[in-house]
Amino acid sequence: MKQEERRQQTIRRLMDTTKELIRENGCHSITMKDIMGKSGLSKGAIFHYVKSKNEIFVWVLQERLEATNVNFMNAVEHGRQTFNEPMQQIKESIIAYENPHDVTNKVLLYLLGKEDDPLVAEALKQYYDRSVHLSKLWIETGQRHGVITETVDAEKTADMFTLMTFGLRIRSGIPRVQSAFKAQDLTTFIGGILNPGTEDGKKG
């Protein structure tokens, strides 16, 4: 097996194991020993790639964002040039952000409490910046295809959407909140800004 394939397999196993442990026990109680035991990987194999569980948590946090980007671009490339099909990929992520049991929401809330760790602080900054960058990319892609209005300021709108989704995710961790503004309302709001004048931003 090539070195890169072995690296990818190890990272995949670490991430899958960590997500399973988070679903079972939450973020705070998990130890590297738990991850070693459940993954079947040796201490040496794990510490060759990471020094702490927080680094694995960062991988888990980033995973969905990158997957959403891939799905969005695939929808643009292989679908008709419409607003709705690529937007559906973003909607699915936003709906998940409302779920208090969602693994990436749990990870984000946990890491926000560890911002004194320089590695975590830098990872959170990079994650936020990456979220804004991809949101801007999606808007500009839609504008190039003529399905998002040219009057939308891609940079400001991307930052606003990222800020709103972070708020949605933080709210998901507050017990027993009675919310009037749901994830579906946010997707409708976003659609209306990107493609005004049509129901839920749908066009074509």
Summarize the structure.
The protein is an all-alpha fold. 71% of the residues lie in helices and 0% in strands.
Task: Characterize the structure shown.
- Residues 199-204 have low confidence and may be disordered.
- Helix 4 packs across helix 6 and helix 5 runs antiparallel to helix 9 (183-194).
- This protein has helices at 3-25, 32-39, 43-47, 53-78, 84-97, 103-112, 118-144, 154-172, 183-194.
- By secondary structure, it is mainly α.
- The N and C termini lie far apart (47 Å).
Q: What topology emerges from the helices and strands here?
A:
Elements lengths: L2 H23 L6 H8 L3 H5 L5 H26 L5 H14 L5 H10 L5 H27 L9 H19 L10 H12 L10
Helix pairs in contact: 1-2, 1-4, 4-5, 4-6, 4-7, 5-9, 7-8
Count of helical stretches? 9
The helix content, as a percent range, equals over 70%
Sketch the major β-sheet: none
What does the average pLDDT come to? Answer: 90
Number of strands: 0
DSSP strand content = under 5%
Terminal residue distance: 47 Å
Return Rg in Å: 19 Å
Any idea what the shape is? globular
Computed structural class: mainly alpha
Provide the succession of SSEs.
Answer: HHHHHHHHH
Give the oligomeric state of the chains in this entry, treating copies of one chain as homo and distinct chains as hetero. single chain
Low-confidence stretches: 199-204
Descriptors for this entry?
204 residues; mainly alpha; 9 helices; globular; disordered C terminus
